[in-house]
Design goal:
single chain; alpha/beta; Rossmann fold; three-stranded antiparallel β-sheet; 9 strands; 19% helix; binds guanosine-5'-monophosphate
Length: 196
Amino acid sequence: MSGGARPGPERRPQSWVGVDPMLGSVVVTADEIARRVEELGAQITLDYAARPPLLVGVLKGAFVFLADLSRFIELPVEMDFMAVGSYGAATKTSGVVRIVKDLDLDLSGRDVIVVEDIVDSGLTLSYLRKSLLARGPASLAICTLLLKTGQQQASFDVDYVGFEIPPDFVVGYGLDVAERYRNLADLRVYVGGEPE
Ligand code: 5GP
């Protein structure tokens, strides 16, 4: 690039958000998310100092979180992605989990951190955990940006949690309804009905 140093771009106002009747109150602001993601990155850096982890992002919802989190981990991490389906376009869990896209990398002997956007019933993660543990990783930890309080039907440990939130359906920061709202900077309640 030529010329002197330029200030970074300001965060866009996202003025379209204010006129969308499907969007309710802000649950977590972009600034709160940024601060917490930095803390999580620092914690993971400490915990994995001698053994850089393989980050497994669960598509699509975790892509924004993983992109930010990985840049706050001061270690030579590797990344891979998998896609699972449990919701389709509906806002209620179906309880059915299937792998839509599997990992490219071999997990055997690796220190793996699964990076999720949100744990609701826990069915998705409990299935994923079982499936990934069967591949012989040295260790398997779970990092989720959001945990809905009191909703879990499956019991398991979540090692890193960004925020515990009430059981409303939320969108933004990677989370969607029928592929929309992933680019919202804040996390908001979705107040619309079931998407078509
Ligand atoms: P679980 O299996 O824990 O019930 O659901 C996990 C998955 O459901 C998440 O990875 C996410 O894709 C979806 N999900 C659960 N709660 C919400 C929510 O409040 N908003 C959105 N957009 N997706 C959710």
